[in-house]
Design a protein that fits this description.
Helix 5 packs across helix 8. This protein has twelve helices and nine strands. The protein starts with a helix and ends with a helix. The chain is an alpha+beta fold and 336 residues long. The chain has a seven-stranded mixed beta sheet with strand order 1-4-5-9-8-7-6, with helices on both faces. A hairpin with a 2-residue loop joins strand 6 and strand 7. The protein has two domains: 84 residues; 226 residues, 2-Layer Sandwich (BirA Bifunctional Protein, domain 2), CATH 3.30.930.10. Helices cover 41% and strands 19% of the residues. The structure holds 3,4-dihydroxyphenylalanine. 3,4-dihydroxyphenylalanine (DAH) binds next to strand 8 and strand 9.
């Protein structure tokens, strides 16, 4: 076989061997088998000198072209193998970690309110609502609160600019909703009213010019103080644990007779350094209130109460300062 005819098969064989080399060492060996001192391609080049002079240029050119191709193939395969060597043996997950979403949560006062409301719903109470901007009739007059009562003083209540001759105010308690509900529906009534109230107090650790109350009203035939005590105790045990104790102390409210303040005691109040903490006002609905809303006080009787929600939340979570509820400090709120 002439020298020129031998070139192509050797080149093809070289190309196939290079392609088969699985790593750099194998590639070097393959390269040596063709281009090394004892290589098959080198052997072809050595035969060149034995050719007749006139055949040498053509054969030389063909050999050189093939050599250039083989060297290029070696380089290409080398680059490919080097890249493969850089790739990790195991697949790597390059997905970025998910972006953390900030999950909001309920305000502690909302949570306490919802828990109280849930207890009362189970006992058959409905939730009622009323306006925060109230008139004197619903906030005071209909609740049997006389014109000279200190609560009606502008020192204690936020009055708004009189509108069309009527002086409006920010309700000082949720008791105004008792009147709104009873004026609109006949007895029996079983409602709770959570809501915001306003008083002209200077803020300190136990006072804030706005706070939340939950009002309760139960009107039916033959309702007694026993019902009041039993209901309130049931709800508080459910809310704050079985070991809580309640104490009813005689008090005065113009819209109830008799009236009581409810004191609360538990390991929590003791850890706050107090045996008893006042948490609510309550009593049997005063006949004058029934009269104002057109209920027959001979036929119907009822009880009512008003709790401060912040107080209960402070006891429940061990919070020392009421203002924390209103500062919207995320470090505080994120704890609930
Ligand atoms: N309104 C009273 C207050 O804000 C709380 C209260 C006392 C509500 C007696 C009542 C009640 O319904 O019967 O301090």
């Amino acid at each position: 076989m002439s020298l020129i005819d031998q070139i192509a098969p050797v080149k093809d064989s070289a190309m196939a061997d290079l392609e088969e080399a699985r790593d750099l060492a194998a590639l070097d060996q393959a390269k040596g088998r063709y281009l090394g001192a004892e290589g098959r391609f080198t052997a072809l080049m050595k035969q060149l000198g034995a050719l007749p002079k006139e055949e040498r240029p053509l054969a030389g050119k063909a050999i050189n072209a093939a050599k250039v191709e083989i060297e290029a193939a070696v380089l290409a395969r080398r680059t490919q193998l080097e890249l493969e060597a850089l790739m990790p043996a195991e697949p790597i997950d390059f997905t970025l970690p998910g972006r953390r979403r900030f999950v909001g949560r309920l305000h502690p006062l909302t949570r306490v309110t919802e828990d109280i409301v849930r207890c009362f719903r189970r006992l058959g109470f409905a939730v009622a609502d009323g306006p925060e901007v109230e008139d004197e009739y619903h906030c005071f007059d209909a609740l049997n609160t006389p014109a000279d009562h200190p609560a009606r003083d502008s020192q204690d209540t936020f009055f708004l600019e009189p509108n069309l001759g009527e002086s409006m105010l920010l309700r000082t308690h949720t008791s105004s909703v008792q009147i709104r509900v009873m004026s609109k529906q006949p007895p029996p009534v079983r409602i709770v009213v959570p809501g915001r109230v306003y008083r002209r107090d200077n803020a300190d650790s136990t006072h804030n010019p706005t706070f939340q109350q939950i009002e309760g009203l139960y009107v039916d035939k033959g309702v007694t103080v026993g019902d009041l005590k039993g209901t309130v105790e049931t709800v508080f045990k459910e809310l704050l644990g079985d070991e809580v104790r309640l104490r009813f102390r005689p008090h005065y409210f113009s819209y109830t007779e008799p009236s009581f303040e409810i004191d609360f005691s538990s390991s929590l109040t003791k850890s706050m350094g107090k045996e008893w903490l006042e948490i609510a006002g309550c009593g049997m609905v005063h006949p004058s209130v029934f009269q104002a809303v057109g209920y027959d006080a001979e036929e119907w009787s009822g009880w009512a109460f008003g709790f401060g929600i912040e107080r209960i939340a402070m006891i429940r979570y061990g919070i020392p300062d009421i203002r924390l509820f209103y500062e919207n400090d995320i470090r505080f709120l994120a704890q609930f």
